[in-house]
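General statements about sequence and structure are easier to judge against a single worked case. For one protein, we set the task of working out the structure tokens from the amino acid sequence alone. The sequence in question and its structure tokens are set out directly beneath this paragraph.
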Amino acid sequence: MFTKSEHPLRVEAALDPRLSRWMWMVKWILAIPHYIVLFFLQITFLLLSIVAFFSILITGRYPRRLFDFNVGVIRWTTRVNYYASSVLGTDAYPPFTLKEVRDYPIHVDVAYPERLSRGLVLVKWLLIIPQLLVIIVLSTSGWTAYRYLDDYSPFSSGLIGLLSLIAVVILTFTGKYPRDLFDFLMGLMRWSLRVLVYSSLMTDKYPPFRLDMGGKEPTAGVVEPAGAG
């Protein structure tokens, strides 16, 4: 399903070719049941991240069951954001599951790290600050490392929200979602998720300062052109 990626996080998505011109206006309402469930899942995500911190500090390992659960929360949240807020790239209603769903148009996975640095876990919050400054500009003035997991509005107040709004307004008038905007929004989403998994201690791979645009992950060692997704 995934191309071989140079980063432990892999995000791939397909733009729905038959998007409704008007459905984007009510998707955030239709997604309310997801938001209710995700509220509790994301609290659990934060608590398990704290448990993982001490486990990594003592043993150098992220407990596999906790890791898989937190990947599931990211996966579920990303599907809902892709449907209702951050990209609005599909009309397919998100499934209520932490598991990978092969026939859903967006897929997220994170490679499990067998070992993690016990020293690095103490300073990741400091190292990630430059990345957070970029994400603040891209997303919203209220963004934190976990802001991506808590986006319950139809559009964020930053660049991502603005571009998503422009894309669906163009969709409304032309019947087509602009491909260049989709590729760019996927790059922003991918960057935000890389920052999230690093700050959540799920990898020691520092996020690159770049946009890997398009629906497909860039092949390991190669950055694909924006139109390749």
Notes: The chain has seven helices and two strands. The two ends are 14 Å apart (CA to CA).
